[in-house]
Every structure is written in C-alpha cells, then in structure tokens.
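Sequence in, structure out. First:
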Amino acid sequence: VGGKPEVKSNYDLLRKLKADISTAFPSLSVEDLSELVPNKEELNVVKIYAHKGDAVTLYVLHKNPVLFELEKCLYPTVYTLWRYPHVLPTFTTWPPVLQKLAGGADLMLPGVVVPLSGIPEVKKGDCCAVKVVSNRAPMAVGTATMSSAEMRSLGMKGRGVSVLHTYMDSLWAFGDKSGPPSIPDVDTEGVEATYEEEEEEEDDDEATEGSEEEPCPNRVPDAPCPGIQELSLADREEGEHGKEEGEDPEDLRSPQEQMDALLLQCFLQALKSKVKKSELPLLTSSFLRIHMFSCCPSGKQLDIKKSSYKKLSKFLQCMQQQHSLVRVKELSKGVESIVEVDWKNPELRSFRTPKDPGIEEASVEVGRAEGEKPYHPPEITTLYSVSSRLEPLFQDAKKRKGTVLQPAEVRAIITDYVKRNELVDENNKNYVIINPILCDCLLEKSEYQEVEALKWDDLFSRTLYKMQHCHQLVFPGQPPIVKKGHIEPIDISVASRGSNKKVTMIKNLEVYGLDPMAVSVALQHRVQASSALNPVPGSKDRVLVQIQGNQVQQVCKLLLDKYQIPCKYIQGLDNKVQKPGRKK
C-alpha cells in the first residue's frame, strides 16, 4: 500500500464526510460521530492503489486510517470498529480462520460460529464485520455475498463474506499497528468452552492411539503451537515434511511465527552457502543486506520488524546464546560484527538448502512469467520529419510534409539537390551558394541580405534543426514505433517528505517498455524499502514508482546494469547521495 496526503481537513470536507458516515452507519450517535470525526482535528485524505489496481481513498486521523472508500462505498477500518464494535452486523468465526482471512481468503459459511441468538440479519452487498469467539472486537471488514435468509436456506454452505480488510493486513499496517482490545462477548462464551472441550477430547484420543505428533490444529494465534515456540531446524523440516503430504502447517502459524521461521531459514542458508571464512569479521548489517536477503524464497519478503525479535541484534544474540552458531562482537562503538561461525554445528551441517531458494535476481526478473522472454532494451533512433517550411527543398525528392527520414537520408537528399542545381562554390568547394529556395528554407530574415553561402556542415545542421524531431523505438520481435518529438528520458527525482524523510520517484518507465510494477519489486528487493505506484499527474496511462529514501544510486545500477538502458536516456543521475570528501 502506498500513497500521500492530498487534502487537509476543512469545513466542507468534514460536513460532507459526516453526512456520508451518518447515512452509511445510522447506528452511530451524534456524540459518536463527533468523536470519530472531530471538528478541530486535522483529517488527512490519502489516495492509494491496492494490489489489484483499485483506487482506494483513506481518511486518516491521528496517523490511523479510520475509514476507507472503495467504489464510492464507505467502510470503517478495524481501528474504528475497535472503538465502535456495534456499528456493523458481525459474523463470528474461530481464531485459526483469521489467519486465512489475513492471507486473502473470504469467510466461508462452514467456518461461521452460530451463537444462540443466530446469525446477524444482512442483505446481499451489506457491509459487515467478522470477529472471533470470546472477543467482540472485529478483526475483518467485508460485504455479504448473500442475504441471511439465503445463508440459512443453503445450510450455511458456500461463501458468506467477501473480505476487504483485516487485522494485520497492509491497511492496518498503515496505522500505528496496535493490537485489538479484549471486549468480552457474552453470546459466544459457552461456544468457546464447548470448542475447547472438543479439542481436549480430540487430543486425548490421539494420545491413546499413539499417533505421531502433528502440527497443532485450530490454535488461537496468541498461543503458539509447542512445536514452533522455539526455532529449530528439526521443527522446520517437520513442517516441510507435512507440506509434502498435502498438509499446510504454515497456515496454522501466526504471521510472526512464519517470519521467525523464514528468518532462521535465511540465516542458516546464508551461513552455509554464502559466507566464507575469509570474509570474517563481517558487519552484521552487511550480512543481512548482502547474504540473508538474497536467500529469501521467491514470493516472500524478509522483514525482521514483523518477527518476534524486532531487531537483528536480538536475533543474532539468540543464535549465539541458544544455538551457538555464531559469535557476535562489538569491534567498534555501536557497530557489531560476526567474528566467528561454528561451521561444525550439527544444526548448520544438517541444514539442506531449499530447491527453490528464490535468489534475488531470479525472483525479480522483470516480474515476468515463466517461459516469457527476458527484457531487452529497445533500439532508439533519432528521425526527422519534413516540415511545411522545408517542403520546397524536398519536393524534387518527392518527400512531402510529414515524411519521416533518417539523418543519412536527409544528408543524401540535400547533397543531391545542391549538385543538381550546381550550387557548389567553384572557388571554394567547402561552401554552398544560397539560392532563393535555400534562403527561404534555412535563413532567418536578418540573414537574407548578409549570407550568400554556407559551409556544408552548417547547411546540414540548419536543415536538421528546421525539421521536426521524431524518434523510433524498435523492440525485439515487434514492428517499429515512430513518435513525434524527442524521446522522454527516464526521470529520477528525490523529494522530501516531512522533516527528515526522502523518497525517490521514477517516471517514464513505460516509454522504454519497462513494467513499473516489476521495477518497483526489483528495487524493493534490492534496498529492502517500501515502494508504491502512484499515478503521474496529467497522464491517464502512466504511473511513477516511489520508494523510500534516496535510492538514486541503486536505481541507476538497476537501469544501467540489469535493463541496459543507455545513460543518455536517464535523467537525474546527479541526485545521488554525495559522500563527504576528505578535508584537506
């Protein structure tokens, strides 16, 4: 998710927004409405684009999105629903289902818990919320795919709620990332007790049958399975084994636990296949940026902040104290380095590198599908079009106004014209005598009485200057594309956001056949910073890539080295971060 504040609060905006909220959510009282949208507080309107390209408008108060508008319909975020849980009709489900909803799934009716009071009454398309048993705080927002009567008539089968936004998704992460409050739910207390008793009975049955330990089913995300409370190689291998048998144990883990496992996998793979003894001591920041990130599997992104460790130093401390894999030392104040690796550690020696490690270059190969040809830069040729003023000069060559010519063709036509009309100066063949046609076509009015002859080079350069500039693009396997004017360069600029934040913006990628989304993903993997696609003002079919920080140097490397774009077609190379020089 990416975007930028576009409109600040004003009276008209607040009045219209309050009217829309009151219409969409009539259960909100006047006091609730004033508290949700205060008159004297600053409200920011942020326009973002979802992964599918849908335009979404966010209303942000105190750095938290409180409402979002999609296709002219207003929806509350989980931050708002936690303050006013009664606003929407709410369906109840089991805690493990929440992880699937956060992963992009819709709420299926077999997963709905029906309390004694029954399911809420909704019509098809109504906005509704989803909560888990024992807690009234909603965890997801969506629309009903059918009416309550239809749900009951179908025996609670099929898709019930089309989910738009959940706790732990990108919209939630746009805010302060606070957790849901615990609001007791009287309606489902008995249901939860029954559910727990059934779980205990199932566990007892499995224990008496002597079955092997399996990933814990249907656990609440806040209570991790015993098999993944501590990171170990054996736990990860068991998970892979279960995956081969058609199970998906990773779905039963919270996003934080999944990130912990991914962190360990990348750490072990980096030690085993990337780091050499000759590199030690190795800066911990370099180890993460150069080695661990490149080991991240395709389709996943390594983010330490989403793990239970939060910081690289804490993770490496765990690897040193509990696993005895590395030794980390502070060689200089505030700078840690890996000074020793236990290459004989059983956990490291038994680690097997995944078959599809998803190396950076493979995972971001221009975002292309399997079997698709890699990107090749177009051949760019400068052309010239015959203008109305120069048409008499090209008339003998039968080139009319608008005819597009190569520079060599222009030179040949002008040379032929001069020789056919015997305009070469007999005393000095480096000069061409100006006749009336050349005078009208190439000279300025102030030169009519002064200039009687021109050098050949001056004649050619004046001719090209008076013609209309064009350019031709030839992509491999495609017919040439001719357009008027000079080709627009890829524009790289750096802008300030706030007091000390900068963003890098890249425009005109489409001109060179580059997919902005692919470039955005490639940069995101290279610099491990958030990126977004925003529309270019005044253009309907172009977007710009925006990435956090001054990343001009990395953008240049990507365009020059990977995509082979010539340097002359890149504008803004001088915006690189300048390293301070030595004082003399």
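Second:
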Amino acid sequence: MAGKEEELGERNGSARIDIGSTTPADSGHARLHQLGYKQELKRDLSVLSNFAFSFSIISVLTGITTLYNTGLRFGGTVTMTYGWFVAGIFTMSVGLSMAEICSSYPTSGGLYYWSARLSGKQWAPFASWMTGWYCSSRLPSSSFVELFHLSFISVPVLFNIVGQWAVTTSVDFSLAQLLQVIILLSTGGNNGGGYLASKYVVIGFHGGILLVHAIINSLPISWLSFFGQLAAAWNVIGVFVLMILIPTVATERSSARFVFTHFNTQNDAGIHSKLYIFVLGLLMSQYTLTGYDASAHMTEETKSADKNGPKGIISSIGISIIVGWAYLLGITFAVTNIPYLLSSDNDAGGYAIAEVFYLAFKSRYGTGVGGIICLGVVAVAIFFCGMSSVTSNSRMAYAFSRDGAMPLSSFWHRVNRQEVPVNAVWLSAVVSFCMALTSLGSLVAFQAMVSIATVGLYVAYAMPIFFRITLARNSFVAGPFNLGRYGVMVGWVSVLWVATITVLFSLPVAYPVTKDTLNYTPVAVGGLLILTVGSWLLSARHWFKGPITNINT
C-alpha cells in the first residue's frame, strides 16, 4: 500500500510525506500530512457536524420553496413527485463517486485538488487548472510580473469556487425575496394594499443577511458546529411540521390521483412537448440537491475525515431525498388551482408556496397569519442554508489561497487565534454581495449568473470523477470508504448524468426565444470555460506546474 501511494504521489508531481513515528492519532490528520499539508485549522467536528453542514446547504426547505413555481409550471405534481426521485437517484450516484475520492484525499481543497491528483503528472496542471487549482510556486520572481499573472488567472482559477459563491448569492437573495413576500402579506397582501419592497430594499436585505452570516462564521468552529447541528434539526423538524400542518389546515385539498397523476401542460412558455416540460421541471429537484461537497471542504476540521467526510456526503444526500419528498407531498396535497398559484395577481404576487401557506390558514381561520408564521419557519431554514454555504465557501477560498492561487493569497490564507480563516470568510461574503448587485440592472443577467450554481457546480463535481474512472482507473488508491469493483461503473453513470443535465438545462425555457426569454446558462458557463481554456493556452501552460505542498520533505 505504501509503495502504491509513493508511486501515485510521484506520478502526480506531489511529494509524499513520510511522517514515521510522528503520525498523528487521528487518521484524517495523518492523511493530510501524507498529502503534504500542515494541520492549520482546528480539527474538532464530529461526523454529525460534518453531515449537518452539507444537509443544511442542500436544505430541502430552501430549494423546494424557492423553485416550487418552476415545478408547478413545468409538469406540475407529476414532475415534482417522480422527478424528485429521478434527480435523487442520479445525485446519489454522483455523491457516492465523490465520497470515494474524498476518502482518499480528505482536504479542504476538495474538487480541484482531487482533479490534480487523479489526472496524473502529465495532465495534472491542465486538469487542476480547469477545475480550479492554484498557481505554481515557480512564478517569475518579478513582483510586477507575479501580480500580472495572479490578476490574469483570477477568473479561470475560480471556475469551481465561482459556483460556490453563486450558491451563496442565490440562497441569500432567495431569503431576501422571501422577506419581501412576508412583508407584503403581513401588510395586507398584493390585493389589500400591502407594501412591496423595492429592488433596492431587497438588495439591502441581502447585504444585511450576508453581514450576519460573516459575523457568525468568524466565531470558533465549536460555535459553527452547534449552529450546523441546529440547522440540520430545524430542517428536519420544519419539514415534518409543515408537511402535516399545511394540508391539515387547508379546507380544500387535492386528491391522491391529482398529486400522483396530474401533468400540467399549461404554461406561458409556449412549450407543449411533455418530455421537454418534464425535463425543465427537473431543475427544481436538481437545484435543491446540490452543495453536498461542503462535507469535503470541511474535512480538515473533521475528526477521522477519511471516514467521516464520505459519511457526511452520502448521508446528507440520502436523508435529503427522503425528507424532501415528504415535504413535496405534504405541500402538494394543499394545491388545488395551479394557474391561480402562479398568477402575479394573487396575494403573494405569484410566489406559489407563500400563497399555499397563506390561503390554507385564511380559508379556515379568516386570517393568513398562521401561513406567514410558517413562511418564517422556511426563512430560518434558508438563513441557516446561507450560513453553512459561507462556511463552505470560506474553506475553499482558504485552500485556494494556501496554494497561492489568488491575488493576496497570504492575506486570505490567514487564520485567527481560534484557527478560523476569518479573512476568507469576509471575502466570500463580499463577493457574494457583489454578485447580487447585478439584480439591480437585470434579473435576466442575475439569473444567468446564478445558473452556474447548478450547472457549473455539477461540471466541477464531474471532472475529478471522470479522471478517476479514466486516467486514474488503475492507479487510484482507495481510502477506507470505497465502492470496490463498482466504483468505475458508478463513476460513469455520474459523469453521463452530469453531461445530460448540462445539455438539458441549457435548452430554451420559453418560445419564441428573445433576449428576455433566452436561457443564458450556456452563455454564463461557456464564458467561464472559454476564459479558463484561453488563459491556459495563452499563459498558464508555460509556468503552471500543478500541486505544491506546504510541508518540507
């Protein structure tokens, strides 16, 4: 085993660290040293805490609530009820493949580090560059030239992390929009003279939410562990309370036949093909089931990370699939009039789930206050989702800067006395806020950028898996968690699924196609791809050599 590991390290251009008798008792700590990194973050998270971060970012209350309109418009109850399992099965396949790699390489760098180690010495620089690696330690000595190179590579090197920031942006912006709807309903609703906050107020909400998230993430990891577990508990309890309460309170409920067989083809998008409609409706499920790579980014702070990191990934996906389907069913049984829920003329201004909650209580008690309180439960879950997302972002930014991949890397890499990468925390919050500012100019531009949160992240998920089943098929050294002889087969299923959804989610979502209805997902993702490849061909291939370590060998 040791001989294979040394051979793998040489093949990938990375040094293997022989720590001999000084091997730490924690297996994750020992493996980190073998990979060539110092233990700089406090390793204090249990497997439950690791799971909690990914589960809170997946947050079925967040994803389903914010994209429920999409599910209703494209296919309705059938798309949501069955599409959830279609997306869930393939997402679990991706998660299993990632968990196997995480067990072998439990570092905060996650995806981009995996790509470098799995692609072999010849391809490591290009592979890690494409996934989002770091710049080589062999940069020209001139400080001006070094700054030029760092500035030039900042966009492509962030091909992976930009998806992470886009997730935080979309989650916290979704919370700001939900607060807008809660205020609207609390002041009388759309038809009762309620107050509809302007886009400037919404962006103010967004900034305030990010500020609180940055403050919380500056606390010691023991506090973050507590908040993470609280978030996981809130999501589970919240789901079961809402899935039982809403259909119970509603005076009108749909039948089981409607929930399991009604396929909605009435949309204002000019799309009539049932298959096309079903595919577009899958976006709700696939968008929700993202972010579980957080367990990998938290491995340097997790005890026995080579075992508990993979457990965090798999359990967060599995439990989210079960809990999410329960939430979908419970809410959908209270749906009786899809066109009305999607209409901008209803009290919630077209926010479907908000209208479902509001009508359920108003129809029985004459007031929708109970529904507004239920929206508050969802709002807290979204808040926790954004909090955990900032945590994951900051650890990835920390790993990038540790490897010298960002301008001012030494600054972003610093940890405080509580061993928290506090500068990376505030960087993540500021970048996420700046990304949301595009909403002031055009919601179309904002939605195009946020689309990277789904397609861009899954492309980043697929790259190390692809390298594991191709270039590293015979050389991959599995960790404590592995898929055995099924690893390659599951890997191919994962890669093909990502390729499929990348194409499907790039298709037009409305006809005729105009500048306002064009799906800008391929433009946003393709633009990043062109920048990444272009900068590699023009500059990086001459000096970027791949992984480095921060332990002397």
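Remark: Residues 210 and 430 are 8 Å apart (CA to CA).
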